[in-house]
Write a structure and sequence with these properties.
With about 210 residues, the chain is an alpha/beta fold. Helices cover about 25% and strands about 15% of the residues. The strands form two sheets. It has a five-stranded mixed sheet, covered by helices on one side. Strands 6-7 form a two-stranded parallel ribbon. Strand 1, helix 1 and strand 2 form a beta-alpha-beta unit. It starts with 13 loop residues before the first strand and ends in a 6-residue tail after the last helix. Helix 1 packs across helix 3. The protein is globular, with a radius of gyration of 16 Å. The structure holds ligand SRS, calcium ion and zinc ion (ZN) (2 copies).
């Protein structure tokens, strides 16, 4: 097949992340736990680990934001990401071409405002500096932990963090990287064999030793 295009990936063995904003729909500790669980799903397959930081600038910024162009910016922290991302002109992962760059920052500090309930649930940037790796979740969704009604946060976080690691979409409906959300119960939620193959193709296998 075609020589593998330059697929950006994290070079460091330890990638840091920081959760800078939360959703009203779930307790903070639940969001912390589900983010760690989503990250661990990927890192247990590859020789890379994640470290959570609560201060400073991490590799991966995770947060919730809402709104379209006519909603006042809700989170200044993202605008920092927006500025650093702009300086590198980092292309967004899987953004439909219809997104033409606005001439002013959109609601949550990058060029891609969210669209209210439904529609796009979240988005994430491929590995790189500034906005690279960051994952933003649409606060206008009803987020759930897999028990109540609402969007399963673990499933969406695993998809987004797959993008943050450099994965693209898969045409396999069983893949976590399938482009549309399918309600999965979070009890036996796991990566598909294809997901594991894709991530190991990019980062290699975690040695059992
Ligand atoms: C896979 C996700 C976790 C992440 C992706 C976004 S991304 C960038 N990270 N790949 C996502 O949000 N996909 C949309 C795609 C989508 C489905 N529809 C849409 C209607 C309008 C706009 C988008 C959509 C039809 C109606 C259903 C809307 C709710 C579910 N939405 C989706 O599945
Ligand atoms: Ca939405
Ligand atoms: Zn964003
Ligand atoms: Zn996606």
């Amino acid at each position: 097949d075609l020589p593998s295009r330059n697929r950006p990936k994290w070079i460091s063995k330890v990638v840091t992340y920081r959760i800078i904003s939360y959703t009203r729909d779930l307790p903070r500790v639940t969001v912390d736990h589900l983010v760690a669980k989503a990250l661990n799903m990927w890192s247990k397959e590859i020789p890379l680990s994640f470290r959570r930081v609560v201060l400073g600038i991490p590799d991966i910024v995770i947060g919730f934001a809402r709104g379209g162009p006519n909603v006042t910016p809700t989170c200044q922290a993202f605008s920092l990401g927006w500025l650093s991302g702009l300086s590198r002109g980092f292309l967004k992962q899987n953004v439909p071409e219809t997104h033409k760059h606005a001439h002013r920052p959109a609601a949550h500090g990058d060029f891609y405002p969210f669209d209210g309930p439904g529609g796009t649930l979240a988005h994430a940037y491929e590995p790189g500096p500034g906005l690279g790796g960051d994952a933003h979740f649409d606060e206008d969704e009803r987020w759930a932990d897999g028990r109540g009604l609402g969007i399963n946060f673990l499933a969406v976080a695993t998809h987004e963090l797959g993008h943050s690691l450099g994965l693209r979409h898969s045409s396999d409906p069983d893949s976590v990287m399938y482009p549309t959300y399918g309600a999965r119960d979070s009890e036996n939620f796991k990566l598909s064999p294809g997901d594991i193959r894709e991530i190991q193709e990019l980062y290699g296998k975690r040695s059992k030793s």
